[in-house]
Each structure stands twice: as C-alpha cells, then as structure tokens.
Amino acid sequence: MIRCGLRMVRLLGAALLVAGLGLLAPARAGAAYSFGVVPQFEARELAAIWIPILAELSKRTGLALTMKGSPRIPEFEIAFEAGEFDFAYMNPYHAMIAARKQGYLPLVRDAQPLYGVLAVRKDSPYQAVKDLAGKKISFPAPNAFGASLLMRADLETLFHIKVIPLYAQTHTSSYLNTVLGISEASGGVKGSFDRQKPDLRESLRIIYETRKVPSHPILAHPRVPEAHRDLVKQALLDMAATPEGAALLNKIPMSQPTSASTDEYALMSKLKLDKFYVKSGD
C-alpha cells in the first residue's frame, strides 16, 4: 500500500510538472505580435526583406512575430496612429507622431543617418535644384520622410521654389517615373536609391541631398511587455554580429543597428515640418 501510495505521488508530481511546463511554454513561445512595416517598396519586395528577418527574430526570441502589411503609406499611418501594430518599422517623423499618439518606444535604428536625395535622369539638362522650379517631381507619398516630407520642405524653405508633386506610392515607382520622363526629378532616400536595380540606378543622377537626421527606427507599442521588447532589441543587435544576420539586416537597410531613444525622434519637431505633413484621410 505504501509503495502504491508513493507511486501515485510520483505520478501526480510528474503530471503536475508536465502541466506546469505546458503553461509556462506558451507564456514565451506562444506570445504572438504583429510587425508593421512602412511600405517603401512594393509588397513582394518588402515581404522578401522582412519575412526572413522576422523568422530569425522569432527563432532568437521565442516570440511569434508576423508581418502586417499596408498597401500604401497613408494606410500605414492610419494603422500605427490607431496602435494596430505591436512592433513597427517607420520613418523618423512617423516615429515622433507614433510616440505622441500611442506612446510607441524606439528600440533600435541604423547608426548611419537618413537623408533624402533628389535625382534627375542622367542625360537631363537640369544641374541644380533651382532649375526644377515649376517642374514635376515624383515622390513616394506626401509623408515619406526623407524622400518627400523633408525634401519638399527643403525645396520651399531653403531654395524658395515651388514644384508640381506627383505621388508614385513607392520609392521605386518614384525613380521610375523620372527615368520614363513622367517627371523631371524624383525624391528618394540614399538607402532606397542604392537598393535599386543597376539599370534603373545608373539611369539617374543625384543633384541634391537633404539635411541628415536619425534613421528609421524599429519601435514597440507600450502594451508589449518590457521583457519582450528587450528580447527583440537584443536579438536585433545580436543579429548584426553574425554574417548571416548582418546580411538580412542590410536589406532593410540597417547595416549598423544601435539603440534608439524617444528623445532623438522628439527632435523632429525642430525641423518644423508640420506645414508639409498631410494627415491621414486628408
């Protein structure tokens, strides 16, 4: 009877241990989060960049991170202002707004600064910014930061010229418009310009670079537990230390991930870009 009782105690203990492990495992591995990405490029290209990154982050953290796409930048803006993303990658001005609206917290950014570029066809007669007064310029979207928001501000406040904006939805389409002669110039950022296919990139010539600012951050909504935010942040920094991880991050591009802070993006207000920002739905 005693042996039988001891056996029952052991079995019960084992059952409780298994049940306990079953409850503990989902607490980490079962935590699922959405990850929003600003649609700089067309959907297939974004997916090709980010799905492998999120798979690696999920593997390293034990969290289930799933990309949540937006068809265009305006839809992306509506989503993050409503707090729909648990984690997100967005431009610096969006980061400032996301912090104001929802309390999003920057985790990491590229150490390299962000700046916009203004490109014309290689065989274009335009040599200087002032030559583009009154001309058609393609931009990805009104609030694409370096490519449009900061660029349009520079054109008006630093060069005192007016242009005719054409919004092409993506950086690639913006550059392509210029190559095809639909616009006289296109706004982009150096990172997206360098990512274009050689035949497109080599058909263009950069004639202006904007002021430099902190680059696009990866942020977390404050509802994500601090422990999970820290897991993702550390995993991103660790990825950069391996050849395979660095190759994945370079595609964002985020070649030198470093810690990001809310204060860095709060400084965006000093650029006085509110006049040029188009609110979602306007």
TrEMBL record:
Gene3D superfamilies: Periplasmic binding protein-like II (3.40.190.10). This is Periplasmic binding protein-related protein. It comes from Accumulibacter regalis. The lineage of its organism: Bacteria, Pseudomonadati, Pseudomonadota, Betaproteobacteria, Candidatus Accumulibacter.
